[in-house]
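Could you show me just one protein sequence together with its fold in token form as a worked example?
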Amino acid sequence: MDRLDHLEHLDKHLVDELAQVARETVRDELRQQTRKQRRTAALYAASGALALYAGAALALALGLALSLGLPDWAAALITAVVLGVAAYALRGAARPSAGREGELAADRDRVAGGTAPGTPPGGTGPAGYPPVPPVAPGGGTGAAGGPAPGMPPGAPPPAGVDPEDPRHRGR
């Protein structure tokens, strides 16, 4: 009995040690991943800041070019309008509108090399789904697995009757 208590103590010690090693390993892995992601985020931020300055320099160049033939205030106004139109167009491209949601859904359903067929060859259902048999497996809704009394085989259930509802199944 004393020997089993000693083994139990060793098992608990081993489990605690393994848990500690696992925690340290996970912590080190997360530290490395965080360091990589922090560096990537800093590079993206620097890239965005430089792109902002490049856009400002481009807007200044456009304004200066327009000011050669126009008064300064008109060149600045035209530059502001051009930038506003570009911002509005980019906003519209980023936000899916009601008309574009269908296009986006169609883009998600496309397959490599073309579009997916509407129905599988020899099937009657939409692509990706097997055709539904006209009669449920097991024969129908009758008591012995056959059609319900007074219903021809394969006939749809009467309107307003849910064939999956246990109250409407044959008794």
About this structure: Helices lie at 2-67, 72-94, 98-109. Residues 2-67 form the longest helix (66 residues). The mean pLDDT is 75.
